[in-house]
Specification:
Blueprint: H1 2-26, H2 31-50, H3 61-80, H4 91-105, E1 110-111, E2 124-125, E3 131-134, E4 137-140, H5 145-184, H6 190-199, H7 201-206, H8 213-236, H9 254-281, H10 285-288, H11 290-305, H12 314-335, H13 337-342, H14 344-366, H15 368-379, H16 384-405, H17 415-431, H18 445-453, H19 455-473, H20 481-496, H21 515-536, H22 541-567, H23 575-585, E5 590-594, H24 597-610, E6 615-618, H25 629-641, E7 645-650, E8 663-673, E9 684-694
Parallel strand pairs: 5-6, 5-7
Antiparallel strand pairs: 1-4, 2-6, 3-4, 7-9, 8-9
Length: about 700
C-alpha cells in the first residue's frame, strides 16, 4: 500500500497534464472535456504503472498508517491556515489569476478586448505584474503546468477549491518523499522523513498557496520512485501479467517469462516522462533533470557492454525524458514565450549545457566499450572511494564557510536589477542592516538549509552522501546512483546560485523541489546507517532504540522550532472577500481604466479575470505614477461611445476627485510574509491594500 500510495501522485499529475495540455493548446480546456480525459489518462497510467508492483517497500501497517496520518495532518493543517493570495504582488497570485482565467475560459493567451475599451489607443497599457502584453494579447508570466493542475480545484469549488488545492498537493508530496525514503532506507524511517518535511517552514509556506514548487517536488521524486520500481521489476521478474514465483527456484510460467522485461521497460519510460514533465511545471526543471539524462546514457552504455541487467532500461528512460521535456519546452515556447525571453540570460546557458550533456551522452554511449575499460582502471585506484567521500564532505564544508569567504553582489544593469536592488535596500532598512542594494546574500544559502531543517539533519545528510558516494565508487549501492546524483547536483547548483530575491520566507521556496526533501531522505538514511553501525559494534536493541529516538528528535525538533513562529499565522487572509466585494461594486457593462501605477500592477488582471471586466491601465505622465487627465477623459468618452460604462480605479480617492465622487471599493488590512535577510522568519508583517473607484461624469468639474 505504501508503495502504491507514494507512486500514484506523480502518475495522476502526469495523466492530468498529458490530457490538459493539448486541450489548452486547442483552446478546449473545459471541465466537461478535460475532467473525463484527465481522469481516464490518470487511471490508465496508474493501472500500468502500479499493477502488481514487486515488493519495493517493506513496511508494516503501523508504519504505513503513520505516513498516511502525517500526510492527512499536513493537508488539514495547511488547509486551516491556507493563504488567499489573489491580489498580484508576487508569484502565487500570478498563478492564481492565471488559473482563474484558465478555469473560466479554457484558453490562453488572454484577449485584451480592446473594443470594450473604445478601440486602440496609445495610452492603453495591458501588461501588469506577472502578465506580459505580447502579440496582441496578455500572456501569463510562468509555465502553464501549475494552473492546469490548480484549475481542477477551481472547477470543484470555485475560489475555495482553488485556494485549498495547494494543501492537497502538499499531502501528496509528503507521500512521495516518504515513499522514496521507504524504498531507499526502509519503511520504519518513512514516517520520520514525512514528519520532518511536513513541519519544515519552506514546505508549510509553499503548501498553503499556489506555488509551482510542490507539484515539481511530486514529479521529481515520483520519477525517482518509478525508476526504482522499474529496476525492481526487472530484477524480480514481476510484470503487469504475472507475479513472483512461489519459491525462488520455481520457474515462472511462459507467458510471464516472455513479458518479464515489458513492465520494467514501461516503468522506465513512465519515469522518464514524469521527470521530463517537471519542465512543464517549472522551467528550472531543465536543470533538475540533467542527471537523469546522464544516467540514461550510462544505462545505454551498460546495455551495450553487458555490464548490468539495468542497461535495457536506458532507451525507454531516455525516450520518456525526451518526450516529457519536449512537451514542457514546447508549451513554454507557445504559451510563455515572453517569460522565456526574460530569462534568456540564464536560460540560454542552461540550454547550451543541456545540449553539451546530450552530445557527451551520445558520444559516451557510442564509445561504451573503451570508456568502460578506462573506468575499470579508474575504479581500481586504491584511494578512489575515500577521495569521493571526502569530496562530498568538502563541498558542504565550503558552503558552510562561504559567508566568511565571499560576499555575493550584483551590480544593477537592467531595470529589473534596479528594482530588485531598491527592494533589497528597503528590506535592509526594515531589518536594521547596512544598506547595500547590490547584496544578494547567496553566500548564506547553506545556512538557510540549517535554519529550516537544523544542523543535525545537514550533518547526517552529509555523512550519508559521503558513505553512499564511497559505496558507489566501490561498485556497490547502484540503486542510490540516480537519487544521489539528482539530490547532489540540484543542491550544489541551487546553493551556489539560488537566483531569487533573498528575503525569507520567500527565498526558502527555492529549497522545496529537491534540496530540502533530498537532504531529508539522506539524513534519515544517515540515521539508519548510524543505528546499524552501533549494532555492528555490539550494542543491544535498547541502545539502538535510544539512538533512533534521539536521532529522530534531533531531526524533527529544530525544524518545528523554526516553523512555529509563522506556522499558525496565515498570510494574505481577507483578499478573497476584498476581491469579491470590489467585483460586486463594479456596475454592469463596466470597462475599467486604472489610472495609477500601484493599483495597475496589482489589480489589472484581478479585475480582468476574477471580475470578468475588460480592463487596461492608462499610461502615466512622464515622471509620475498617475495618468494625465486628458488621456483619461478621452478614453472614458470612447468607452461610452462603445456602449459601456467607464470606471476609474486608483489607490487613493484624491487621485480620482477630478473625475467624480470616489468610492472606496477595497480596504484590506491583513498580514503578509516577513522579509528577513539574515535570520529565519519568526513572524509576519502587516499590510494594507486600498482601491477607490469612480464613474467619471460626462462633463467633469474643472481641475488641475
Amino acid at each position: 500500500m505504501l508503495a502504491v500510495l507514494s507512486a500514484a501522485p506523480a502518475l495522476v499529475l502526469v495523466g492530468w497534464l498529458l490530457a490538459g495540455l493539448p486541450l489548452l493548446l486547442l483552446g478546449w480546456f473545459r471541465p466537461f472535456v478535460a475532467v473525463p480525459l484527465g481522469l481516464l489518462a490518470a487511471a490508465a497510467l496508474c493501472r500500468y504503472g502500479l499493477r502488481r508492483l514487486p515488493e519495493t517497500v517493506e513496511a508494516t501497517a503501523r508504519q504505513t498508517g503513520a505516513v498516511v496520518a502525517v500526510a492527512l495532518g499536513s493537508a488539514v493543517f495547511n488547509a486551516v491556515f491556507h493563504s488567499e493570495q489573489l491580489v498580484v504582488r508576487r508569484d502565487p497570485a500570478t498563478y492564481a489569476q492565471t488559473t482563474i482565467w484558465l478555469a473560466r475560459h479554457g484558453s490562453l493567451p488572454i484577449p485584451r478586448d480592446i473594443a470594450a475599451l473604445g478601440g486602440p489607443d496609445p495610452a492603453l497599457l495591458f501588461e501588469s505584474a506577472g502578465f506580459y502584453s505580447s502579440g496582441g494579447a496578455v500572456v501569463p508570466q510562468f509555465m502553464p503546468g501549475p494552473p492546469l493542475l490548480y484549475a481542477f480545484g477551481h472547477w470543484l469549488g470555485g475560489l475555495t477549491g482553488l485556494l485549498l488545492a495547494p494543501p492537497v498537493l502538499g499531502a501528496l508530496a509528503v507521500l512521495a518523499v516518504a515513499g522514496l525514503t521507504a524504498r531507499l532506507a526502509g519503511g520504519r524511517w518513512a514516517p520520520v522523513a514525512a514528519l520532518l518535511l511536513a513541519v519544515s517552514l519552506p514546505f508549510l509556506y509553499t503548501a498553503r498557496t499556489t506555488f509551482s514548487e510542490i507539484p515539481s517536488l511530486i514529479l521529481i521524486f515520483g520519477g525517482l520512485i518509478l525508476l526504482h520500481d522499474a529496476r525492481a521489476r526487472l530484477r524480480a521478474g514481476v510484470t503487469g501479467l504475472g507475479y513472483l514465483p512461489a519459491t525462488p527456484s520455481a520457474e515462472p510460467p511462459g507467458e510471464v517469462r516472455e513479458a518479464q522485461p515489458r513492465a520494467a521497460l514501461a516503468g522506465a519510460a513512465l519515469a522518464g516522462l514524469v521527470f521530463g514533465l517537471a519542465v512543464l511545471v517549472r522551467i528550472d526543471g531543465l536543470r533538475d533533470v540533467l542527471p537523469v539524462l546522464v544516467y540514461a546514457g550510462l544505462l545505454i552504455a551498460m546495455g551495450r557492454t553487458g555490464l548490468r541487467e539495468e542497461g535495457r532500461l536506458g532507451l525507454p528512460l531516455l525516450g520518456g525524458l525526451i518526450a516529457g521535456t519536449g512537451l514542457g519546452v514546447a508549451a513554454g515556447y507557445l504559451l510563455s514565450r515572453p517569460y522565456l525571453k526574460y530569462l534568456s540570460s540564464s536560460l540560454t546557458p542552461l540550454l547550451l549545457i543541456c545540449g553539451a550533456v546530450v552530445a557527451l551522452t551520445v558520444v559516451a554511449a557510442l564509445l561504451a566499450r573503451p570508456l568502460a575499460a578506462a573506468l575499470r582502471r579508474v575504479a581500481a585506484l586504491r584511494w578512489l572511494p575515500e577521495i569521493v567521500a571526502g569530496l562530498a564532505v568538502a563541498v558542504m564544508a565550503v558552503f558552510a564557510a562561504r559567508p566568511w569567504l565571499q560576499q555575493v553582489t550584483r551590480v544593477p544593469t537592467t531595470q529589473a536589477d534596479r528594482l530588485n536592488a531598491l527592494f533589497i535596500t528597503n528590506t535592509q532598512r526594515a531589518n536594521g542592516l547596512p544598506v547595500d542594494g547590490a547584496r544578494l546574500y547567496y553566500e548564506d544559502s547553506l545556512h538557510w538549509v540549517m535554519w529550516y531543517i537544523g544542523v543535525p539533519a545537514v550533518v547526517l545528510a552529509t555523512l550519508a552522501a559521503a558513505v553512499l558516494a564511497r559505496r558507489l565508487a566501490r561498485g556497490t549501492g547502484f540503486g542510490w546512483l540516480l537519487p544521489l546524483a539528482v539530490i547532489g547536483w540540484t543542491t550544489v547548483t541551487t546553493l551556489y546560485r539560488p537566483a531569487i530575491t533573498p528575503d525569507h520566507p520567500w527565498a526558502s521556496r527555492r529549497l522545496v523541489p529537491v534540496v530540502l526533501p533530498g537532504l531529508i531522505v539522506l539524513a534519515v538514511w544517515g540515521l539508519r546507517w548510524s543505528r546499524d553501525k552501533i549494532r555492528r559494534m555490539g550494542y543491544g536493541p535498547a541502545a539502538q532504540r535510544n539512538l533512533t529516538a534521539v536521532g529522530a528528535a534531533l531531526l524533527v525538533v529544530p525544524a518545528a522550532v523554526t516553523s512555529i513562529g509563522t506556522a499558525f499565522t496565515p498570510v494574505e487572509r481577507g483578499e478573497r472577500a476584498a476581491v469579491e466585494a470590489m467585483c460586486a461594486a463594479l456596475p454592469e457593462q463596466a470597462s475599467v481604466l486604472i489610472v495609477e501605477r500601484v493599483t495597475g500592477e496589482r489589480l489589472t488582471q484581478v479585475v480582468r479575470g476574477a471580475c470578468g471586466v475588460p480592463t487596461a491601465k492608462v499610461a502615466p505622465l512622464w515622471g509620475s505614477d498617475v495618468a494625465g487627465k486628458a488621456d483619461v477623459l478621452r478614453l472614458a468618452s470612447r468607452i461610452r461611445a462603445a456602449g459601456r460604462v467607464p470606471v476609474l480605479l486608483a489607490v487613493k480617492g484624491s487621485q480620482l476627485t477630478r473625475y467624480g465622487e470616489p468610492v472606496q471599493v477595497m480596504a484590506l488590512r491583513t498580514r503578509q510574509d516577513e522579509r528577513s535577510l539574515v535570520s529565519p522568519p519568526d513572524g509576519t508583517w502587516s499590510t494594507a491594500i486600498d482601491a477607490w473607484m469612480t464613474i467619471p461624469a460626462e462633463n467633469p468639474p474643472p481641475g488641475s
